[in-house]
Amino acid sequence: MVTINTLKRGFKKGLETIWILSKVIIPIYMIVTVLKHTPALEYVALVFSPVMQLFGLPGEAAIVLVLGGLINIYAAIGAIMSLTLTAKQITVLAVMISFAHNLLVETAVSTRVGVSAKLIVGFRLLLAVVGGLIINLVL
Q: What pTM did the predictor assign?
């Protein structure tokens, strides 16, 4: 049986989690939204469009991949929310980010246990590329 204390603790932990995630997602969302109204995002889209087209993504989706790879999944979510993407495009990005997220921190952790940094980064990036290509073809 669930007690009132359990509900209170759960509610408090839920609010704490929302606060932690909001500190990443909201600023990224705002930054990318502002960038949408400047030539900067258009330039990024133009530069990365040829590569992103391989995955069925618009050029500005490169920002999502960079934020997910360098910061974390929640930064990528903030960027995704500020862009106009289809369900298919979000799915492709989700698969790619699931393989290659938080590369800096997770690579540092992996090297502490003896895994080669080049090997782990290369393998995760390869999985992201292959996964993105396959999902783009399948969907």
A: 0.86
The DSSP secondary-structure symbol of 122 reads H
Question: In the chain, how many domains are there?
Answer: 1
pLDDT in tens, 81-114: 999 999 999 999 999 999 999 999 999 999 999 9
Instruction: Give the H/E segment covering residue 130.
Output: helix 117-138
Do residues 120 and 84 touch, judged by C-beta distance below 8 A? no
Biggest alpha carbon distance in the chain?
Answer: 57
DSSP string of 25-89, one letter each residue? HHHHHHHHHHHHTSHHHHHHHHHHHHHHHTTT--TTHHHHHHHHHHT-HHHHHHHHHHS---HHH
> 61-70 and 4-36 helices cross at what angle (nearest 10)?
130
Q: Look up the domain containing 41 and give its range.
A: 4-138
